[in-house]
Design goal:
InterPro entries: Pantoate_hydroxy_MeTrfase (IPR003700), Pyrv/PenolPyrv_kinase-like_dom (IPR015813), Pyrv_kinase-like_dom_sf (IPR040442). Belongs to the PanB family. Pathway: Cofactor biosynthesis; (R)-pantothenate biosynthesis; (R)-pantoate from 3-methyl-2-oxobutanoate: step 1/2. It comes from Luteimonas lutimaris. With about 270 residues, this protein is an alpha/beta fold. The protein has a single domain (about 10-265), classed as TIM Barrel (Alpha-Beta Barrel). Helix content is about 40%, strand content about 15%. It has 12 helices and 8 strands. It binds 5,10-methenyl-6,7,8-trihydrofolic acid (MHF), 3-methyl-2-oxobutanoic acid (KIV) and magnesium ion (MG). 5,10-methenyl-6,7,8-trihydrofolic acid binds near residues 63, 158, 231 and 233.
């Protein structure tokens, strides 16, 4: 049985065990070995080499310019700093456009040290998820605000506010779980909808702007350290302010996710 105090490496089957046992999962993005080591030491369960690196590391205004080479490089850097956390890497824009492309990109990311890949969306991506899972590549799905859809969406907005959109999102969540995803990130969805999805599916949900009822939470490294430039999304919290140091900030974040005090209503969408 998985417990958060285990120092053993976290495995893919342990994720569903954590959900069944009611243990909340704390996830953070990381892009280099130094932060990865600090996060791993502080008990972060999952590390994500996110394509958010296009924005916070490279300085672009979206995630679209990020390449598989970029993610593979940062995954290799992060992997050298990880001993316990489960390392997840994003498939960047269009690397998952076809099953074959997704398999090639995912193989590179797993060979760079990731243990799971994450991809955005449902629809034709359901076939991609099934194709990868059948080939022994663990997959994390990502629904709600999918930043790679920013051109179609016209901005980074809360998703699933209308009844029809909420029904679609709920059906998509069940579909990605049925396709074999082992984990599901829900980004920028109203708390009651994220709660319903979390009850619907047996796989853990990881929220970012999805309220307190998800099975875990994820935030971007820069955001927990108060480095958000410009508009600060509602779900962002500066844990450095209360933690006093980088290690203190991470420990405060992990503790708040574990005990359910983060996110509160002030950091969620109603
Ligand atoms: N630093 C950083 N943090 C992130 O969480 C993040 C990135 N970068 N880059 C990739 C995506 C983009 N993300 C974003 C960016 C902006 C909002 C945002 O401003 N949301 C509005 C929603 C308002 C509404 O629709 O009601 C907000 O004010 O919270 C949300 C997610 C999340 N991801
Ligand atoms: C914000 C998380 C979920 C992400 O996809 C990223 O960092 O790219
Ligand atoms: Mg991403």
């Amino acid at each position: 049985m998985y417990t958060p105090d285990d120092r053993k490496p976290l495995t893919v089957p342990a994720l569903a065990e954590a959900k069944r046992g009611g243990h909340k999962l704390a996830m953070l993005t990381a892009y280099d070995a130094g932060f990865a080591r600090a996060f791993d030491d502080s008990g972060v369960d999952l590390l994500l080499v996110g394509d958010s690196l296009g924005m916070v590391v490279q300085g672009h205004d979206s995630t679209l310019p990020v390449t598989v080479d970029d993610i593979a490089y940062h995954t290799a850097c992060v992997a050298r700093g990880v001993s316990r956390a489960l390392l997840v890497a994003d498939l960047p824009f269009q690397a998952d456009a076809t099953p074959e492309r997704a398999l090639d990109a995912s193989t590179r990311l797993l060979q760079a040290g990731a243990r799971m890949v994450k991809l955005e969306g449902a629809g034709h991506k359901l076939e991609v998820i099934r194709f990868l899972v059948e080939r022994e590549i663990p997959v994390c799905a990502h629904l709600g605000l999918t930043p790679q859809s920013v051109l179609r969406l016209g901005g980074y907005k809360v998703q699933g506010r209308e009844d029809e959109a909420a029904r679609k999102l709920r059906a998509d969540a069940s579909a990605v779980a049925d396709a074999g995803a082992a984990l599901l990130v829900l980004e920028c969805v109203p708390s009651p909808l994220a709660q319903a999805i979390t009850t619907d599916v047996a796989i853990p949900t990881i929220g970012i702007g999805a309220g307190p009822h998800c099975d875990g939470q994820v935030l971007v490294l820069h955001d927990i350290l108060g480095l958000q430039g410009g508009h600060r999304p509602k779900f962002v919290k500066d844990f450095l302010a209360e933690g006093g140091s980088v290690a203190g900030a991470v420990q405060a974040y992990v503790a708040a996710v574990r005990d359910g005090s983060f996110p509160d209503a002030a950091h969620s969408y109603a």
